[in-house]
């Protein structure tokens, strides 16, 4: 069995007596991308710095490509860990050309190899002519690609990306993110990405780890953590969600929207049910119909390709519906709310 590219076990870290990480465990399979996502101050950047070798753990172990690099008995320096690192701002040397920046990551004998630099520029989809430019002559997206090429130069066992797209504007961030994701997948480079951007984590990663107060609240594929988060914090952090009280009986939940199938096995009894707004479809009814799933549109927010409707179901809290923006129900209209797919049981009071 091939060892995971990164194995973190029982990792703890404190600063000035304040605990930042509490026994963190994380496995990153070889050739995959794992995104650690969380709010500012949750500990995700500390985790990345520990893996990089910029900080020493209080306890626990870190192994890269099967080699233990940090534990109570051992600490391998950052430059000997076989990792590539791309910071938020790229951190290019302003006094060096693009080619010299990339060559800086090569061994002494390879630094004069124009072919190697050209190949790396091609890898990150930049032309060879870029080699003579200075960093200030590049766009933000181009600078990030050069930083990635420099990190790839030494063919690291693990790539670390620290909020690499957050300094870019919205359109450039999306295109650069897509390009980098393609590059990493094509090169089969194992990557650990730290970000506060939920959309970024869900779109670029094979595995998403949601961090809260120095612990992982949920770890799984993007589909798993988004559609079946398991707890309220993960559900709410990864996007809009609709939480409804209900009662589960035999795999079916009774709630204000009717009788709905439950995604996984759940014990019978009271429960908190979760749906994503895109699971709901509001359709105008022609009469004053009452009953399960019928409500009134309180507000409508046009967002271009979709619209957010806030609907009063007649009992309990208003619910949010996200659907396409073509001819949506009007404010004050009576609507029937239909549900696509099963609901998730987040917790059940004892």
UniProtKB/TrEMBL annotation:
Enzyme class name: translocase
GO MF assignments: ABC-type ferric iron transporter activity; ABC-type quaternary ammonium compound transporting activity; ATP binding; ATP hydrolysis activity
Keywords: ATP-binding, Cell membrane, Ion transport, Iron, Iron transport, Membrane, Nucleotide-binding, Transport
Domain of life, source organism: Bacteria
CC annotations in GO: ATP-binding cassette (ABC) transporter complex
Stored SMART domains: AAA
Residue ranges of domain ABC transporter in the record: 6-238
UniProt entry tagged with the keyword Secreted: no
UniProt-listed Enzyme Commission number(s): 7.6.2.9
Protein name (Swiss-Prot/TrEMBL): ABC-type quaternary amine transporter
């Amino acid at each position: 069995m091939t060892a995971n590219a990164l194995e973190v076990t029982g990792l703890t870290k404190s600063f000035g007596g304040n605990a930042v990480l509490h026994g963190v465990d994380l496995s990153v399979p070889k050739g995959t991308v794992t995104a650690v996502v969380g709010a500012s101050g949750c500990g995700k950047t500390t985790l990345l710095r520990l893996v990089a070798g910029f900080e020493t753990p209080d306890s626990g172990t870190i192994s890269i490509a099967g080699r233990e690099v940090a534990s109570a008995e051992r600490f391998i320096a950052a430059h000997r860990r076989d990792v590539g690192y791309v910071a938020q701002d790229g951190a290019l040397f302003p006094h060096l050309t693009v080619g010299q920046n990339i060559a800086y990551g090569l061994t002494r004998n390879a630094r004069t190899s124009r072919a190697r630099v050209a190949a790396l520029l091609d890898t990150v989809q930049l032309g060879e002519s870029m080699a003579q430019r200075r960093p200030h002559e590049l766009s933000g997206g181009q600078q990030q690609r050069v930083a990635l090429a420099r990190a790839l130069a030494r063919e690291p066992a693990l790539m670390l990306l620290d909020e690499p797209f957050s300094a870019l504007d919205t359109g450039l961030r999306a295109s650069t993110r897509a390009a980098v994701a393609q590059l990493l997948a094509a090169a089969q480079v194992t990557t650990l990405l730290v970000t506060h951007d939920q959309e970024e984590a869900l779109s670029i990663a094979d595995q998403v780890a949601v961090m809260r107060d120095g612990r992982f609240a949920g770890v799984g594929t993007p589909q798993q953590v988004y559609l079946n988060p398991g707890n309220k914090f993960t559900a709410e952090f990864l996007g809009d969600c609709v939480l409804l009280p209900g009662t589960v009986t035999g795999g079916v939940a009774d709630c204000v929207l009717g009788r709905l199938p439950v995604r996984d096995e759940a014990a019978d009894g009271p429960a908190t049910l979760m749906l994503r707004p895109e699971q709901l479809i509001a359709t105008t009814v022609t009469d004053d119909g009452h009953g399960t799933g019928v409500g009134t549109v309180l507000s409508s927010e046009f967002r271009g390709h979709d619209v957010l409707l806030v609907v009063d179901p007649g009992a309990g809290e208003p619910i949010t519906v996200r659907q396409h923006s073509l001819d949506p129900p009007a404010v004050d209209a009576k609507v029937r709310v239909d549900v696509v797919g099963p609901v998730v049981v987040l917790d059940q009071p004892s």
